[in-house]
Amino acid sequence: MPRAIMPAVKPYAYLAFNTHHGDAGLALAVPSCAVSAGVLAVTLLLAEIARRLVNRITEQGSLLSQLLHEVVAAGELCACCFELCVIADNYGVWVYAVCLWALTVWWGTRWGSATACPYIHYEDVVEGNTDVVTALLKTAAQLGGGFAIYNYIQYIWELELAETHIDKADEDCVADLHVTMFQGAGIEGAATCVARVASRIISQREIPLGNYIDAFVGTSMVIAAFDLTGGYLNPILASSLKYDCEGNTFEEHVIVYWVGATLGAIASIYLANHPTIQKLLGKPKAD
């Protein structure tokens, strides 16, 4: 996710198919933001079709079904976030934040047990809800989905349907870490921990409109870390968008986005269940 958050000078663009091959084609005055919204909508639609296909060809609840749903969810998440980077660059961080919040609410209603995030499964391992092998298989599935989607978004950008997509496919990838490695790991870890504690408490207490509140807290943590680390709070997302980008070593990437976020998630288990926190919150809602 880019650090620069400047509004676009020209929010309107000509909708033209692949300008690298000449001026022929459709040319209509269309807001670039509408093109980005279209990319997001098409991505959500394709992911929904893929989920239904998985449900048709696999036994519900089987390991294969779970793995394929993780592939779809990770691909959907990463593809949308690639386009959200375009929105952040051209329309500002607050437009980006609203879009991210809305997408998070949507995903909360569509993904089922899929998470597109590995540390959720590591939490399950710590709590005894799953085994290490299953957690690693789901991580591999998420990585597959997150990296496979790159060709999809590159193809869309190469069409140059909007001014904001021009040369985007050929743009150099630059890392978003603007602090030291350990500071970055601490920031990603702390933000992840806050988001996961909130998510756990909302789930435990069955708070009304919990999905919306959970999405708001998560989005807020992303924005809080945005200019420092990119605010990924998800190792799969960070690797799909920024692995091997200029400005980060392999060690920095792993420590900040994988180790930092995972430790923050594990810490949330103990923090959310700490007697002091539980006492402050009072008794959970009765079944």
Automatic annotation (TrEMBL):
Q: How does it sit in the membrane?
A: Multi-pass membrane protein
Where is this protein localized, as stated in its record? Answer: Membrane
Q: In terms of one coarse class, where is the protein primarily found?
A: membrane
Residues passing through the membrane, by range: 24-47, 212-234, 254-273
The domain of life for this entry's organism is Eukaryota
A GO cellular component annotation here is: cytoplasm
Q: Which PANTHER family match?
A: AQUAPORIN (PTHR21191:SF16)
Q: Which family does it belong to?
A: Belongs to the MIP/aquaporin (TC 1.A.8) family. AQP11/AQP12 subfamily.
Record's protein name: Aquaporin
